[in-house]
Amino acid sequence: MTIERNEPSRAADERTMLDGWLEYHRATLAAKCEGLTDEQLRTKSVPPSELSLLGLVRHMADVERGWYRRVLAGEDAPPIHYTDDDLDGDFRTGPADTWEQAYATWQEEIAAARRHAADFALDDLAKGKHRHRGDEPFNLRWIHTHMIEEYARHNGHADLLREAIDGSTGD
pTM for the full model? Predict the structure, then answer.
């Protein structure tokens, strides 16, 4: 599978620009994982860190679910990979965790996020709340902007992880 990344138009309206940059960063994380084995994807950065490319994908599946299903749409959607007792469970991977499973779950959450976001204008307030961020409501603009920031930060981690695994660098 070859991942295509398309930079958004430089003259797009705000919604198209935000949607475009979010898609660009989603594709960037997938590209950083492309062509690696499950074992390579589970490779941890440096002790004591649990950070791995596979862990980042699992984390982003939970982040997509949290912001678009729970907060934006107000769904009762429990976490996928972490629990209240293990808040970093999404980052913890073991031999049974595979790219195929993690990628499929992540793509399902992205598809759900796209469906929910399509039902909202940028200024529309979310139906749910974030349990750790107070009572002030979020609008879709804030959620999209936060997700772009979240992906951009973790794509920086992915750059370093990928380079350590096989020397691959790039955008």
Answer: 0.94
